[in-house]
């Protein structure tokens, strides 16, 4: 993959999630196997604001984490041979530091710590208005690759 | 030298799968919850790092027990 940015349509080739679960809008920079940065704009039109919560809308923590994981996925699925492959979460440790409100933009920065044989360990950071809103240590996998390396049941 | 290698080998399994030394001899893939597909890859990664080797794909698949792993490592001149 030569291109270093992915717009909202292009990123769909590298990220299998779709509405209402696509949590990234734009990839501003990707270095396959190393890092991916981008953002998600949260408008009043988001499906979850009326229910989380009525009278005090804010972005659910689970979806903030999902945004970080989806961006980390881009750093892996842009590697040769991985385009279009499905990824799964294995384990995530996350800290939430600030509410994200309607109208705010979540800047997402992710970094790959290791990628080998279908298993990726990485870090992600969500920033709003220069403040860290959430950060996570994540392990994700491409099961199609990982499964090729595990002992066969006898 | 040999004793040091076995200590390193044992530590990898004890650390990866949270098991005590006395349980190692019977340790096999999926015999403890921690030795699942993800645990397997983490353990293999640690073996490669500690012994400075790169395991071939077939050896990673065959590495299905603590004891059999010793035989596989002989191929890489790691005699435990």
Could you explain how this protein is built, in words?
The complex is a heterodimer of chains A (154) and B (80). By secondary structure, chain A is mostly beta strands. Chain A has helices spanning 61-77, 143-146; strands spanning 26-31, 35-41, 88-96, 105-116, 119-128, 131-141. Helix content of chain A is 14%, strand content 36%. In chain A, a hairpin with a 2-residue loop joins strand 4 (105-116) and strand 5 (119-128). The longest helix of chain A has 17 residues, at 61-77. Chain A is globular, with a radius of gyration of 16 Å. At the A-B interface, loops of A face helix 2 and helix 3 of B.
Summarize the structure.
Chain A is mainly β and 154 residues long. Chain A has helices at 61-77, 143-146; strands at residues 26-31, 35-41, 88-96, 105-116, 119-128, 131-141.
Describe the structure using short key phrases.
heterodimer; A: 154 residues; mainly beta; Thiol Ester Dehydrase, Chain A; 6-stranded antiparallel β-sheet; 6 strands; B: 80 residues; mainly alpha; Non-ribosomal Peptide Synthetase Peptidyl Carrier Protein, Chain A; 0% strand
Q: How would the global form of chain A be characterised?
A: globular
CATH class of chain A: Alpha Beta
Give the termini distance of chain A in whole angstroms: 40 Å
What is the count of structural domains of chain B? 1
> Largest sheet of chain A, described in full?
6 strands, antiparallel
Number of helices of chain A: 2
**Sheet with the most strands of chain B?**
none
Label the structural class of chain A. Answer: mainly beta
Q: Give the SSE string of chain A.
A: EEHEEEEH
Question: Might you state the CATH topology name of chain B?
Answer: Non-ribosomal Peptide Synthetase Peptidyl Carrier Protein, Chain A
How much beta of chain A, percentage-wise?
35-45%
Rg result of chain A: 16 Å
Alpha-carbon distance between the termini of chain B? Answer: 9 Å
Briefly note the CATH topology name of chain A: Thiol Ester Dehydrase, Chain A
